[in-house]
Amino acid sequence: MTYALQTEAVTKMYGQTGTSTLAVDAVSLAVSAGEFVALVGPSGSGKTTLLAMLAALLNPSEGRIRIDGQDLAAMNDKERTRFRGEKIGFTFQANNLLPYLTALENVELMLRLNGRLDTAGKARARGLLERLGLADRLNNLPSQLSGGQQQRVAIARALVHNPAVVLADEPTASLDTERAFQVVETFASLIHEQQRAGIMVTHDLRMVKYVDRVIHMVDGIIRNEVSDRQQIELLALTGSFEAAEQFALQSPGGLPGVLAQSLAAFALPGSH
Ligand SMILES: Nc1ncnc2c1ncn2[C@@H]1O[C@H](COP(=O)(O)OP(=O)(O)O)[C@@H](O)[C@H]1O
Ligand SMILES: [Mg+2]
Fold first, then answer.
1. Is beta strand 36-40 parallel, antiparallel or unpaired with respect to 21-31?
2. How many helices (H) and strands (E) does the chain have?
3. 105 — phi, psi (to 5°)?
4. Which of 61, 97, 127, 182 would suit a FRET pair with 244, their CA atoms being 20 to 30 Å apart?
């Protein structure tokens, strides 16, 4: 099977030997088309570094990355830049929208830069913004949009060129909880519908309820992964891996078991 994204022992060492930081330590992972993965873990655990390598923005010290079956290391800089523009979409915490372009122009820019702003591309840019609830904001400048609206424009821009892989680093960091849930839910739907491989870094475990798998990074390695639906729901509810594990151990029934337990805790003595 060919994964949309695959790494083999990918490693990043910053600085010189002696004073170096091992930011990402031999991480191997594979993400399928149509799969949405959350990358979580404490600050400094290597999430952004890993994402930058997957986006072909940073060369690994060791290991291998394949996007859509193609080895990034086998390309020269020019080929890699071109490949990035075709196969990879990304959005970072600072959404980097250009202030003097409208929402629609910001999304179209991605295609313009690749020389692919044709009629179909224009329709796709408009369609994505409409899908993200911005039909009446197409011609607004970023300064005329709320934080959540700007973030949705950035998501449209990350998807408009039909990339195989979509990477988002803390896309909800500047949003309130309700907006954050909306943005991630729509992002998840688009990834599933359009069969992209999506990876989202988030510090907010509540957001993981929309993903198919949670990868927990600590000190540059993958500490553990959760792909069981009920475990993911528990993680999103409790906000901690430890609590989710505890709950799962205490109630073999998973989420229904936990809910039954907490309902039982509310029942008044002698009321049944
Ligand atoms: N450009 C850099 N030069 C040197 N060290 C860096 C650089 N970027 C990140 N680091 C270090 O690498 C480690 C991982 O950082 P980062 O990938 O930003 O983690 P996260 O996104 O999980 O907070 C940290 O120890 C950080 O200080
Ligand atoms: Mg980071």
1. unpaired
2. 9, 10
3. -65, -35
4. 182
- Residue identifier of the C-alpha nearest atom 8 of ligand 1: 49
**What is the Cα–Cα distance from 219 to 267, expressed in whole angstroms?**
43
Which atom of ligand 1 lies nearest, measured to the CA of 24?
14
CA distance 29 to 19: 28
Is the four-CA dihedral 237, 242, 243, 249 of positive or negative sign?
A: positive
pLDDT at 2: 77
Which ligand 1 atom lies nearest to the CA of residue 43? 23
Note the pLDDT tens digit of each residue in 83-132.
999 999 999 877 789 999 999 999 999 899 888 899 999 999 999 999 98
User: Residue 21: CB within 6 Å of ligand 1?
Assistant: yes
CA of 92 to the centre of ligand 2 (A): 9
Give the nearest ligand 1 atom to 217 CA: 22
